[in-house]
Amino acid sequence: MISCSRQTFFSLMLPLMAASGALYADDGVPVLLQFAERYHQQGAQEMPANKQQPTQIPVQKPTVKVSQVREPATNQRQQLMAVHKTLREKEAQLERQQAAIQSLQQELTALRVASTLTAPNTAPSRQDFTALSEFARSVRQALNLTPTERQAQVLIAEAHKTMGELQVQLAQLQDKNRKQAKQLEDNGLQLAAALEENAKSAQQFEQVSKRASEAEQERVAGNQVEKRLRKEIDDLRSRATLLPDKLALTKPQEQQSYAAGVALGRDIQTLLAERKTWGIDPDKTTLLGGMIDTFNGHYQLSEAVLASALAESEKTVNAGRTKAAKDQQAKGESFVSEFRKKKGVKKSSAGFWYRVDYLGDEAIAETSLVDIVVKEMLTDGRVIQDMDRSGKVLSQPLSAYPPLFREAIGYLRNHGSLTMVVPPELAYGEAGYAPQIPPNATMVYELRVVDADKG
What we know:
By secondary structure, this protein is α+β, with helices and mostly antiparallel strands. It folds into 3 domains: 2-170, no CATH class; 255-327, Helix Hairpins (Orthogonal Bundle), CATH 1.10.287.460; 335-452, Chitinase A, domain 3 (Roll), CATH 3.10.50. Helix content is 63%, strand content 9%. The protein is built from 10 helices and 7 strands. The longest helix has 93 residues, at 147-239.
């Protein structure tokens, strides 16, 4: 019976022995006691290390200020990390202890079954159950939280609360910061608009000031001109007695004298216009004053000054005329050089260059009466005469035309047209034709035969 019970006991304990071979490292000690002793030793080794960890967490509630949001938040995070680490270690320890308890419960069940089967022969030792009770008590203590851990939980709750408050305050500060940034942006835009408006106002003020300054200068210049004109008017009024009355020009002798004066005046105007093309523009009023003073016999300058001024005037006139002649010579040569390159341009026997624009239809006889229109121009395109535009037609026998134009007409038929470029020596020469044609001017003519009879 006893052997059967032992066999039954061993049959129940063999699985436990196979599952936990390390329990038999020390023979002579009950298996359950060995396990409880080892677990108690392991718990004694682990618990102090685990209990010392929470003591590193400060118990006092941290004081948080809004002005120091970042630094307290960092400290709280460090404390929370330490507490979480301690809790994770506790959780791992509890998991290990729960696994051990489950294993012990299985072994305890097996022992109870075994003790039931072997009750008549074997009495369980009280020491074994006492050790098991001690182990269970240590397990219950391990499952309970220590004061330090409770403080840690309270600290965690307070830290979470503080973090929530700090997050609310941070959100408020961020919102306030965004509003301030928006306000700064609006202020910047307003300032830029104000600066732009101020710049425009300053520019307008500068323009107005400039116009006012120019107006003042014009006013001063106008006053000077007005004074000069008043003086000239006074001088003219004092000399008006020398001018003839219109009603007095009734006698032939008076009319002839007046006509001679007009002719002289026209010659003077032509002379002045010619000199103006040379860059010399005398004052007409002063010139007229000199003429009147000459007839009056009362000069406003001495003879020496008059002689010197006249010499300087002639010198200036000659220099201007020479320069104008050279300029026209250069312009003419350049124009001829370009004209010669055009298609169909030929040189006449007389020496001018021409291009037939339209040959015409019927031949013109030597005895024909030829009607032509001519457009006379300078090389710069300035028109001197345009018979076609003015509606004038020159009609005469071909033999009556000047040699230059008679040769040009000879290159055409009836209704034909050509363009001819005439050098100065074949046109107006060094003298030119004042006031429109300068000296040494190369002339351009567009000639068209309006009609020619058969002779």
